[in-house]
């Protein structure tokens, strides 16, 4: 029988999205953290951190190298990498870390803005696959078997008060909340209504289809798109706020070998059109009637989608 810990081929369970919060005794409610989804494999003397695309990101976060001390047996945790600034998750600071490659810079950053791993589920413990257990049984194992510390924390949850919890998240300008069905199983790699996210602000992973350059030729405004259900590339709009200098250089470097001559969206002029392969996240208030984004802000390039 396949062993989840040895194979390390788990794709995290995904979330369905709804627009309005709700109260339901069949669900628990957790904060939706503005971070990067990650699985942690802990075996008593080592840590392996793996993102949604099975990429090993352990070396990027050396401050989490002692997390194995929080468990006594082989364990797989599902959680979120977060960078807390002024007590709130800051995705921009985290995203800067996720793009680092130089070991010296990573070490300096780990000392200045430490990343934390917030665990909200346990998929495996001491040789046992827990994905076929109801959520509340998994939560009980998580709380009993994992000790907080060494950069590892456990997500708290509440019951019944989903609407009030959402309003509190909105008041505190947090990302939103997640509702999880108490008897729900862990569906590897699948999106179900057992886990539902309700976001204060909308964000969306989009393809960088091109950019309008500044006077030096570097990306200024990013032209964003997505593939619809018929695999047709559609325009979502453009964004310029929030694009870092480092990201502009990455996109500029990508463009050297990945431009296309035919415009994806002819309404935009003076554009360097790209193969739609780079993925990033845009944050916006709401969708416009034409399918664009109202008050968009660029959250950053992603390599975990």
Show the helix and strand layout:
Elements: H1 4-7, E1 14-17, E2 27-31, E3 36-42, E4 47-50, E5 75-85, E6 88-89, H2 91-98, H3 103-112, E7 115-125, E8 128-129, H4 135-145, E9 152-154, E10 158-159, H5 162-171, E11 176-181, E12 191-199, E13 202-213, E14 219-227, E15 233-239, H6 245-255, E16 272-273, E17 279-284, E18 286-287, E19 293-294, E20 297-301
Parallel strand pairs: 1-12, 7-9
Antiparallel strand pairs: 2-10, 2-11, 3-4, 3-5, 5-6, 5-7, 7-8, 11-12, 13-14, 13-16, 13-17, 14-15, 17-20, 18-19
Pick out the low-confidence regions: none
- Structural class designation: alpha+beta
Q: Summarize model confidence as the mean pLDDT.
A: 92
CA-CA gap between termini: 29 Å
Quaternary state reads: single chain
Count of beta strands:
20
How would you describe the shape?
globular
Radius of gyration: 20 Å
Main sheet attributes: strand count, strand direction, barrel closure: 7 strands, mixed
The H-and-E topology, N to C, reads as: HEEEEEEHHEEHEEHEEEEEHEEEEE
Q: Which percent range fits the helix content?
A: 10-25%
Hey, roughly how much beta strand do the residues contain?
35-45%
Count every helix, treating DSSP H or I runs of 4 or more residues as helices. 6
